[in-house]
Every structure is written in structure tokens, then in C-alpha cells.
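User: I'm writing a short methods note and want a consistent example. For glutathione transferase, I'll paste the sequence; you return only the C-alpha cells, no commentary, since I'll be parsing the reply automatically.
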Amino acid sequence: MAGIKVFGHPASTATRRVLIALHEKDLDFELVHVELKDGEHKKEPFLSRNPFGKVPAFEDGDFKLFESRAITQYIAHEYADKGNQLLSPGSKNMAILAMGMEIEAHEFDSVASKLGWEQIFKNFFGLTTDQAVVKEEEVKLGKVLDNYEARLGESKYLASDHFTLVDLHHIPVIQYLLGTPTKKLFEERPHVSAWVADITSRPSSQKILL
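Assistant:
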């Protein structure tokens, strides 16, 4: 049966990013489990969906896509009239949105994901946390969050006064980091702390928690 399918793992931050977007849009979908521990993402048939061997992959009828941020943008545009608005109309607003998504991917996530790997996912794979790496990456994350603190002093959310894809893309990694000592970096900054409490308490954010 044609419809929306997400091929991924429910614990994967990239998969969760897509699931949150689907929940924000109140869309029906099927999550097809890809077992990462068994390396299913590195074998066929998954490689036919994403040749780079990373979850998630996405199908909407005959339309196929991979890369979580590309998928969320497709969902936001294709289903603009459904659920919650995740975009900002107007060329200048869309440029700010695009800038925010670039910052999340290259400045925030590159650091936050390392902290998630060291403190959570290494345990999942039976590995040991490297505290020196954690300390180094927390310094980097602190600098990013200082910029966020200033930005959130000017608007309720990172790209606008309403929730957008920019905020959404941060949620899965933040949810994991709130369960680690890195939580303090969010709590120490009042605007960041309020923003984190807001975005992680959204119904869509709660639905993807295991």
C-alpha cells in the first residue's frame, strides 16, 4: 500500500528528527525498523534506499529520499497545509530559516552528537566514555549555546517567534543530552533553558521517546 514509510531505528537521532516532523504534521506513517546493531543499514535492501548506508530513508508513495534534514524540509513544504506550520513565509524569513538549519547541522550537531556518542551511545555498544573528549566538546558546545542565548533573547525561537524546522532539528540530540551531565550547559543559560523546556515538551517530541 502506498503511503509514507520511514526506514530507520527509533533510537537514532536522525530518524527521530523525521518522526517529529511527521507528528507535527499529524501524518500517518509506517516506521520500518532497521537494526543498526546487526548492520542492516550497511546491506541490501537498505543500501538501495540510501547508498551511503545511514538511517533514515524515506518513501512517500513513489517518491524516495534520504538525509533527515532534506526529508523534514520535504514534509514541511509538501504538507504545508497540515498540522503545524514549520516554515517562515517570505524570502528573507526563509533565508533566516536556511541559515539556522546550516548552523544547527554544522555548528551545533557536529559537537552535540559527539557528546551524545561519548556519553550514551558508547554504552549502547559496550564502549567506554572518553572524559577528555567530553570536556573538550563541552567547551565547544558552550560557545555555540552562548550565541543561542543571545539569539533567544531577541526571539522566542531560533529563526522566528514561532517554532520552525530550525528548532525541530535540535530536539533529538538535546533529549539525549538532558540525561547526561552536559545538561548543565543548557540550564546555565536562562533563554536556552526556557527554549529547551519548550521544544522538548511538545507533543511531537514526547511521542518519539522510547
